[in-house]
């Protein structure tokens, strides 16, 4: 089956670019003109080889134009850096948290269009094997779709969008990892038979970011996407759902009551999630796509995975901490696999602000394991400054908070894992802010401040070119 062979009657499709819609192709063009995009023309195999190339070129958006065994090109690494999200959203990297917080606070209903590029081609037969699912690591259970975004409708709370890794079983079926207690798992528990599903593959960074967010259940993540950038939707052909009109591929079907073995798989922590779980089977009844469609890959455990997991949690932590004190910024650190560790920056106005900020951070991101709270004079993006604050402002007997037997991310290999149950862990917070009540009173606070040498112009002191 070759890409674009099977045209349905030529429908008038809306030229989304006129509406300033950022689709995957638009983003690739932007990344190219910004000098970030790398095009790989040499034939590459989705079985292990492509993941190795993506890993070796980590941080760069890539377009594979010659994919062995498939007629479709493959894009990867679109979200492999804060600068790429900033490029997609038209802001500076350090403004990302505030753009996301703004979008979370001021959501917008996406417009609905009658016909869309994602339905330019309706495949007469369903054959998932024509899509270049990558096998990423030799120990993985098989070929997985890892940048696929799932659209469902919860009977009570409405539309929901999220990621599920999907292991291809055959031409019509996949098995998906559906983490207990999240939106899709909850919706499945509310319906008797199969749950209608649509899966979008080939989406721009702002839609991927919104899909990775975990707002309140009644919040449709697509309204966050629309607040970030225009995201028109179209009705699916065979299921009562709506999907981004600019998606490259849409797979329509059902999450069934049947289960299959899912895993092992290398996940966010870069370690094998060795548990083989019985997980829901997704059955596909209809595939539509754009002409010359581009498939999207995402390296599990890679930077893109980490940023997509961590970045959307910064605004939710920021919002939660701001409910109890004056939060200035939040950074989910790459060292904590961009999921388990955070640094929270506050402007302290009271003795308990540090402790309250820490407790709020765990509410703002329930999978958070460790958090360090610092004052506004500490650069949270500089790990040395954060360590300096711990070294000079933190006393374990006074400022260490440990919370035992807490709900945990299933991704933490050190957590207590019981199949079918939420994992459990201990959580820890370090209040590394200047102590409020110091024995010798507020005057002592000065002792905690880093002294800075007055700035000088070095050119006044060294010969040009002798900058060492
Ligand atoms: C790249 C990526 C892969 C993910 N894979 C899965 C997965 O396989 N299963 C899952 O349940 N959640 C996965 N997630 C997390 C959910 O998509 C995410 O937490 C989402 O926000 C859940 O939303 P909900 O709480 O509204 O359901 C993944 C997230 C990202 C960014």
Structural overview:
With 468 residues, the protein is α+β, with helices and mostly antiparallel strands. It folds into 2 domains: 8-299, Pnp Oxidase, Chain A (Roll); 323-448, UbiD C-terminal domain-like (3-Layer(aba) Sandwich), CATH 3.40.1670. The chain is built from 12 helices and 23 strands. It has helices at 24-33, 49-56, 82-89, 96-105, 183-188, 205-212, 221-228, 303-310, 313-322, 353-364, 383-393, 396-399; strands spanning 38-40, 62-64, 73-76, 112-113, 121-122, 144-145, 149-154, 158-163, 166-168, 173-176, 195-201, 233-235, 242-244, 249-262, 265-266, 272-273, 277-289, 294-296, 326-332, 341-347, 370-375, 400-407, 424-431. It is globular. The chain binds flavin mononucleotide.
Question: Secondary-structure blueprint of this entry?
Answer:
Elements: H1 24-33, E1 38-40, H2 49-56, E2 62-64, E3 73-76, H3 82-89, H4 96-105, E4 112-113, E5 121-122, E6 144-145, E7 149-154, E8 158-163, E9 166-168, E10 173-176, H5 183-188, E11 195-201, H6 205-212, H7 221-228, E12 233-235, E13 242-244, E14 249-262, E15 265-266, E16 272-273, E17 277-289, E18 294-296, H8 303-310, H9 313-322, E19 326-332, E20 341-347, H10 353-364, E21 370-375, H11 383-393, H12 396-399, E22 400-407, E23 424-431
Parallel strand pairs: 1-2, 3-18, 4-12, 20-21, 21-23
Antiparallel strand pairs: 2-3, 5-17, 6-9, 7-8, 7-11, 9-10, 10-17, 11-14, 12-13, 14-17, 15-16, 19-20, 22-23
Bound molecules: flavin mononucleotide.
